[in-house]
Design goal:
Elements: H1 2-33, H2 37-41, E1 49-56, E2 62-68, E3 77-84, E4 87-98, E5 105-114, H3 149-159, H4 163-170, H5 175-190, H6 197-207, E6 212-213, E7 216-217, E8 220-221, E9 225-226, H7 227-230, H8 233-243
Antiparallel strand pairs: 1-2, 2-3, 3-4, 4-5, 6-9, 7-8
Helix pairs in contact: 3-5, 4-5, 5-8
Length: 244
C-alpha cells in the first residue's frame, strides 16, 4: 500500500511539473506571437504576464517590461516589448539572475522576435534595461550615492576609452543611454579629448531634448524629468569635477 502511495505521489509530482512547463511554454509562445500590447494583456491561462513598468524611448517607442504572475514558480524569466501606438515590433523572453560578484544581475535572451518592417538604424537590444532594473538616470543614487548600472557602464567606456560605443549610446533609441553618453563625452572633453562635429551636434540636441527619463537623486526616484532638466550645466560641471 505504501509503495502504491509513493508511486502515485511521484506521478502527481511529474504531472504537475509537466503542466507547469506546458503553461509556461504556452504563455511564452503566445507572448512572442502577439502583435499588439492588447494581445499580450489578453493572454489567458495561469502563466500570463503583467506590466511591471513602461518607459518612453525615442521615435515614439514604448518599452514595456512584463513579469510573470506573482506566485507562479516558472523561474526568473520576463518579457520585454517595444511598441509604437500599441503595435509591437520587438519582443523577447529573457532570464535573469544575480551575477557572480553579487553586485548586479546577468541577463540572457532566450527567444526574441523583430518585425523587419520597422527600421531603426540605431536599434540595439543591448541598450535596453531589463528586470529587475529600470532604465534610470542619475549622478548619485541610493544610500551610497553611486550611479545606476547604466551610469557605471558609461564610466567603464570612458576609462577604456571606448568612444565608438559611447557614440552608439549617443544615437541610441534609449534616452537614458543618450544622457549618460553626454556625460561620458563631457568627461572626455574635460580631459582634453577633441570631439567630432557630428558628436557635438548630437550632444546639443540631446541636451535640449524634452524627452522624459526617470531621475534618481540619493534614495529618491523623482517623477520623470526632461533631458534638458537633468543635463543642466551646474550638475554637469559638478559631476566632471568630481571625476577628475
Amino acid at each position: 500500500m505504501t509503495k502504491i502511495f509513493v508511486h502515485i505521489s511521484i506521478l502527481l509530482l511529474v504531472a504537475t511539473q509537466v503542466l507547469a512547463q506546458s503553461d509556461q511554454e504556452l504563455a511564452v509562445s503566445q507572448a512572442l506571437a502577439a502583435k499588439t500590447i492588447n494581445e499580450v494583456e489578453q493572454i489567458g491561462g495561469k502563466q500570463k504576464f503583467y506590466v511591471e513598468h513602461t518607459d518612453q524611448l525615442n521615435s515614439d517607442i514604448t518599452q514595456t517590461n512584463w513579469r510573470p504572475a506573482k506566485g507562479k514558480k516558472i523561474g526568473r524569466i520576463a518579457l520585454l516589448t517595444l511598441s509604437i501606438n500599441g503595435k509591437i515590433f520587438y519582443s523577447e523572453i529573457y532570464s535573469w539572475d544575480i551575477n557572480d560578484e553579487f553586485d548586479g544581475f546577468d541577463h540572457q535572451i532566450l527567444q526574441s522576435k523583430l518585425d523587419s518592417t520597422f527600421s531603426f538604424p540605431s536599434f540595439d537590444p543591448d541598450h535596453l534595461e531589463r528586470l529587475p532594473n529600470r532604465t534610470t538616470f542619475g549622478y548619485g543614487c541610493g544610500a551610497a550615492g553611486q550611479m545606476p548600472e547604466e551610469g557605471k557602464k558609461m564610466l567603464t567606456l570612458v576609462q577604456a576609452p571606448n568612444t565608438d560605443e559611447l557614440k552608439n549610446w549617443l544615437f541610441s533609441i534609449n534616452p537614458v543611454r543618450q544622457a549618460y553618453s553626454y556625460l561620458g563625452f563631457s568627461l572626455l572633453q574635460a580631459n582634453g579629448t577633441e570631439l567630432d562635429t557630428d558628436i557635438k551636434t548630437k550632444m546639443s540636441q540631446v541636451k535640449e531634448s524634452g524627452l522624459l527619463v526617470y531621475f534618481c537623486d540619493g534614495c529618491i526616484i523623482r517623477e520623470p524629468m526632461s533631458l534638458s532638466e537633468v543635463l543642466d550645466d551646474t550638475s554637469i560641471k559638478r559631476f566632471t569635477a568630481r571625476q577628475q
